[in-house]
Design a protein that fits this description.
Dimethylsulfoxide Reductase, domain 2; 29 strands; about 25% helix; 6-stranded mixed beta barrel; alpha/beta; binds ligand MGD; binds molybdenum atom; Rossmann fold; 4 domains; 20 helices; 6-stranded mixed beta sheet
Length: about 650
C-alpha cells in the first residue's frame, strides 16, 4: 500500500493537495492533504467521491470512430491516421482556418497548452474568443486597476468585515470556508449580497438579496452614503481618476431611488457603507458568477469603485478580490502568429453555423460545449453539421456523442502536470498516482502522436520538460524550481499578500480608473417572470457529476411563484426552450428567481443551457448566462396548449 500526493486539476479555485491510497495498482482512498494550509485535510463532495468517476463502467477505454453512423471501437493508429489525413486534406483544400480548436477547463494543468501549440504550428487554425467563465469580471478589474489579482486568502484574518458579493464558497470554493470561519472567530463580520439564499448564507451574519443585476444600483447607493457620512478616503483623489464624475454618477439619483432599483431597503446600503467606511478594513470577495449578466462588467466595476473610494485598497484586510493570477510564476509557451480568426465561445453555435469561410472540422478538448455553452440545441446542431469532429474526453459526453472520432484520455489521478490556483496563491504538482489504462492516452501523448503523424517536430519531450519550460525563471531567485514544487506544494513567492500596497496601479495614469456610467439590469420579459439562475452545485463540476443524477432536474423556487406543489413536476420554459423539472419550494428565495444546477446533460433533458440565449456581457466578451427569463407552468397546461 502506498500513499501518494497529487494536486486536483479541476476548474475550481481550490487546487487541493490530495493523498491517494494505492493498493495493487488501484486507488482505494482519496483524501485531502492535512499538511496543505488551504486543503486542510478535506476534499469537496465532487472530488471526495471521485473514485466513482475514476472506476466508472462508463469510462472510455478505447478510441471510437464513427462507422455507418455509429461510434465504433478503433485502434489508436487508425484514429490518429484518420485525423491527420483529414486535417492535412482540409488545410490543403480550405486553409487551416477551416479547422477550429476549442479547449475548455476540464483540466487546468498548464501542460494542456501544448495542444494549443501544435494547432498553432499546424495552422494557425481558428481559435476561440471570449471567456464563458469570467470574461466580464476580468475586463472590469483590468479596466479599473490595470491588473487583476487578489489579496492572499489569509489576509482575510486581518479584515473586520468581509462582503461575500455574489459568492457561494461552501459550494464553489469550499476551502475558503475554514479561513472565513477563522476570520469570524477573530471577530470579523460576514455579509452576503446575493439574490439567492444559498448554503453560504448561513455563514454570513447578515444577507441581502437584491434584484438580480441590481448590484450596480446598490453600490451607487452605498457610495453616495459613504460621501454623505464622511467615509470617503480623503486621499482618494490622489489614487483615483474620475472621482468627480463618479461622485456625480452616485448623486444623480437619491439613495432611496438607487435602493428601489436594487429592490432592497435603504438600510442595506447603509449597512454596507458602515462596513466599508467605519468598519474598515473591509474585504470585498467578488464571486466569479456574478458577472455573468448583460451588466456584469459594470457591476464588478461598481464594487471596485466602492473599495477604492472607501480606502480599502492597498491595506491589510481590505481589497476587492476576484481572480488569483499566477503572477509571473508561469511563462506562456512561445506561440506563432495567433489565430487568423476566432469564433466566440459565447455565441459558439450561431457563429459556427454562420462562419464564412466555413469551419469544416472541430477539435474539442477538456470541454463539453453542448452542455456548458448557452443555447445548447444550436451548439449541438452546429457541431452535428460539421464534416469532422474530434473530441478528447474521458466520457461520452453530450459533445463526444456527436464526434466523428473520440479519443479517450486520462483522469485527474493519471495526469502529469502542474497547476496554479485561481482562488489562492498556491502552486502544485499533478502526478499520476496510478498508470493510465492501456487504451487511454494523455492529452500530451495525443498531441505527440498527432504531431508525429502530421510531421511536425518539437513535441517529443516529456511532460517534465514542458513543465520546467513553463515555470518562470524568476521563481528560482526564491529557491523554487520543479523539484521543490514536486516535493511539496508552494505558495507563489511572487504574489504579495496585499495588493497595491503603494496605491499605484498599472493603468495608463497609475491611478484607479473609476467608472463613470451605471448600468441597469436586463429588462423584464412579459410572460416570463422568473430569472433563471443555473448555478454550481456541490454534486458536480460543471457537467461532470459525482454520481449520475436521476430523474428530472430540480428547480428551486419560492412557493408563491410556483403553480405546482412542492415535489411535483412542472415545465420550465424560456423563449428558447423548455425542460421538465421537479419543483422544490423554498420560501427563503426571492419571488422572481428559480434555481437549477448548472451542468445538466442535454440528452437527459436536464441542460439549463437549452433554455439560455447566447448573449454577450457588456464588456470582456463573457456570457450573460444568468439573464434568461423563464416561467414555470403545470405539465397539464402545456399539454393543453399543444
Ligand atoms: N461544486 C462546484 N464547485 C465549482 C464549480 C462547480 O461546477 N461545482 N465550478 C467551478 C467554476 S467553473 C467556477 S468559475 C467557480 C465559480 O463558480 P460560480 O458558481 O460561478 O461562482 P460563485 O461566484 O461562487 O457563485 C455565483 C453566485 O453568484 C450569484 N449571483 C448571480 N447573479 C447575481 C447578481 O446579479 N448579483 C449578485 N450579488 N449575485 C449574483 C449566484 O446566486 C451565486 O450564488 O466555481 C468552481 N467551483
Ligand atoms: N448555464 C450555465 N452554463 C455555464 C455555467 C453556469 O454557471 N451556468 N458556468 C460556466 C463556467 S463558469 C464554465 S468554466 C464552463 C465549464 O464548461 P466546460 O469546461 O465545458 O465544463 P465541463 O463539463 O467540466 O467539461 C470538461 C470536460 O473535460 C473532460 N476532462 C477532464 N479531464 C480532462 C483532461 O485531462 N483532458 C481532456 N481532454 N478532457 C478532460 C471532462 O470529462 C469534461 O467532460 O461552463 C459554463 N457554463
Ligand atoms: Mo468557470
Amino acid at each position: 500500500m502506498q500513499n501518494l500526493k497529487t494536486t486536483c486539476n479541476r476548474d475550481c479555485p481550490d487546487a487541493c493537495s490530495m493523498i491517494a491510497t494505492v493498493e495493487d495498482g488501484r486507488v482505494t482512498r482519496l483524501r485531502g492533504d492535512p499538511d496543505h494550509p488551504i486543503t486542510q485535510g478535506f476534499l469537496c463532495h465532487r472530488t471526495g467521491q471521485y473514485l466513482h468517476t475514476q472506476y466508472s463502467p462508463d469510462r472510455l477505454l478505447t478510441p471510437l470512430i464513427r462507422k455507418d453512423g455509429v461510434l465504433t471501437p478503433a485502434t489508436w493508429d487508425d484514429a490518429i491516421a484518420r485525423i491527420a489525413t483529414t486535417m492535412t486534406r482540409l488545410r490543403d483544400e480550405s486553409g487551416p482556418e477551416a479547422i477550429f480548436h476549442y479547449r475548455s477547463g476540464g483540466s487546468l494543468g498548464f501542460v494542456k497548452a501544448v495542444t494549443d501549440l501544435l494547432f498553432e504550428r499546424f495552422g494557425p487554425v481558428t481559435g476561440k474568443s471570449g471567456d464563458i467563465c469570467s470574461g466580464a469580471g476580468d475586463a472590469a478589474q483590468m479596466a479599473d486597476f490595470g491588473e487583476e489579482d487578489s489579496h492572499d486568502v489569509f489576509d482575510l484574518l486581518n479584515s473586520r468585515h468581509i462582503l461575500l458579493w455574489g459568492k457561494n464558497p461552501i459550494v464553489s470554493n469550499p476551502h475558503l470556508v475554514p479561513i472565513l470561519r477563522d476570520a469570524k472567530a477573530r471577530g470579523a463580520t460576514i455579509v452576503s449580497v446575493d439574490p439567492v439564499w444559498h448554503a453560504s448564507s448561513k455563514l454570513a451574519d447578515r444577507s441581502y438579496q437584491p434584484r438580480p443585476g441590481g448590484d450596480c444600483a446598490l453600490a451607487m447607493a452605498t457610495a453616495r452614503l459613504l460621501w454623505e457620512r464622511g467615509h470617503v478616503d480623503p486621499a482618494a483623489a490622489d489614487y483615483c481618476d474620475n472621482l468627480e464624475e463618479f461622485y456625480a454618477l452616485c448623486h444623480s439619483r437619491s439613495v432611496a431611488e438607487w435602493c428601489a432599483d436594487a429592490d432592497l431597503p435603504v438600510e442595506a446600503a447603509a449597512d454596507l457603507a458602515a462596513c466599508l467606511g467605519p468598519g474598515k478594513p473591509c474585504a470585498i470577495l467578488v464571486g466569479w458568477g456574478m458577472g455573468r449578466r448583460t451588466n456584469g462588467g459594470t457591476i464588478v466595476r461598481a464594487l471596485d469603485a466602492l473599495a477604492a473610494i472607501s480606502g480599502n485598497l492597498g491595506i491589510a484586510g481590505g481589497g476587492v478580490s476576484f481572480y488569483f493570477k499566477r503572477r509571473r510564476a508561469f511563462q506562456p509557451l512561445p506561440t506563432l502568429a495567433g489565430s487568423p480568426r476566432t469564433i466566440s465561445e459565447i455565441t459558439f453555435g450561431a457563429d459556427l453555423l454562420a462562419a464564412d469561410p466555413a469551419v469544416r472540422m472541430l477539435w474539442v478538448t477538456a470541454g463539453n460545449p453542448v452542455a456548458m455553452l448557452p443555447d445548447s440545441e444550436t451548439v449541438a446542431k452546429a457541431i452535428a453539421a460539421l464534416e469532422f469532429v474530434v473530441v478528447v474526453d474521458c466520457f461520452l459526453t453530450d459533445t463526444a456523442a456527436l464526434a466523428t472520432v473520440v479519443l479517450p484520455t486520462t483522469t485527474i489521478l493519471e495526469e502529469d502536470d502542474i497547476v496554479g490556483s485561481y482562488g489562492n496563491h498556491w502552486i502544485g504538482s499533478v502526478r499520476p498516482v496510478v498508470p493510465r489504462p492501456e487504451g487511454v492516452r494523455s492529452d500530451l501523448e495525443i498531441t505527440q502522436l498527432l504531431a508525429k503523424a502530421l510531421g511536425i517536430p518539437g513535441f517529443e519531450e516529456s511532460a517534465r520538460t514542458w513543465k520546467k519550460r513553463m515555470l518562470a525563471p524568476e521563481l528560482s531567485k526564491h529557491g523554487i524550481d520543479l523539484d521543490a514544487i514536486e516535493a511539496a506544494p508552494v505558495r507563489n513567492p511572487l504574489a504579495p499578500a496585499i495588493l497595491f500596497a503603494d496605491r499605484t496601479f498599472p493603468t495608463a495614469t497609475g491611478k484607479v480608473n473609476l467608472m463613470t456610467q451605471a448600468a441597469a439590469p436586463a429588462p423584464d420579459v412579459p410572460g416570463f417572470p422568473l430569472w433563471l439562475l443555473s448555478l454550481s452545485t456541490e454534486k458536480s463540476q460543471s457537467a461532470q457529476w459525482a454520481r449520475p443524477p436521476e430523474g428530472p432536474t430540480v428547480a428551486t423556487v419560492h412557493p408563491d411563484s410556483c403553480p405546482v406543489p412542492d415535489g411535483a413536476a412542472a415545465r420550465l420554459q424560456s423563449q428558447l426552450g423548455s425542460l421538465v423539472v421537479r419543483v422544490k419550494h423554498d420560501p427563503r428565495q426571492r419571488r422572481d428567481v428559480v434555481l437549477v444546477p448548472k451542468g445538466g446533460h442535454l440528452r437527459a433533458g436536464r441542460a439549463a443551457n437549452a433554455l439560455i440565449h447566447a448573449r454577450v456581457t457588456d464588456i470582456g466578451e463573457g456570457a450573460a448566462l444568468y439573464d434568461e427569463r423563464v416561467r414555470l407552468v403545470p405539465i397539464e397546461d402545456t399539454a393543453a396548449q399543444r
